């Protein structure tokens, strides 16, 4: 009784999608990506979610850089 036809039981699907989304954005920031993973992400992840995660990831990256510069300069 897994509650779904995908084998994830329904509840695990959102967590794996969120983790997959974070992983896709992180690897994209580094510029290292396998073609198979890229195609898999393109088929499974929602484009708007990728854009939002990318913008949030960039904002976090800039925030960390500002904190490091402030700590070193101050």
Structural descriptors:
3 helices, single chain, mainly alpha, 74 residues, 77% helix
Summarize the structure in words.
- This is DUF2970 domain-containing protein.
- InterPro entries: DUF2970 (IPR021344).
- The chain crosses the membrane at residues 48-73.
- Keywords: Membrane, Transmembrane, Transmembrane helix.
- This protein is an all-alpha fold and 74 residues long.
- The protein has one domain.
- 77% of the residues lie in helices and 0% in strands.
- It is built from 3 helices and no strands.
- Helix 1 packs across helix 2 and helix 1 packs across helix 3 (47-73).
- The longest helix is centred in the C-terminal third of the chain and has 27 residues, at 47-73.
- It is elongated.
- It starts with 10 loop residues before the first helix and ends with a helix.
- The mean pLDDT is 82.
Task: Walk me through the topology.
Blueprint: H1 11-30, H2 35-44, H3 47-73
Biggest sheet character: none
Mean pLDDT: 82
Measured by DSSP, the beta-strand proportion falls in under 5%
Order of helices and strands: HHH
**Shape by Cα distribution:** elongated
Oligomer description: single chain
Approximate helicity band: over 70%
Structural class: mainly alpha
Low-pLDDT stretches: none
Taking all Cα atoms into account, the compactness measure Rg is 16 Å
Give the beta-strand count. 0
Structural domain tally: 1
Distance between the first and last residues' Cα: 58 Å
Number of helices: 3
Keywords: Membrane, Transmembrane, Transmembrane helix
InterPro entries: DUF2970
Organism: Paraburkholderia denitrificans
Protein name: DUF2970 domain-containing protein
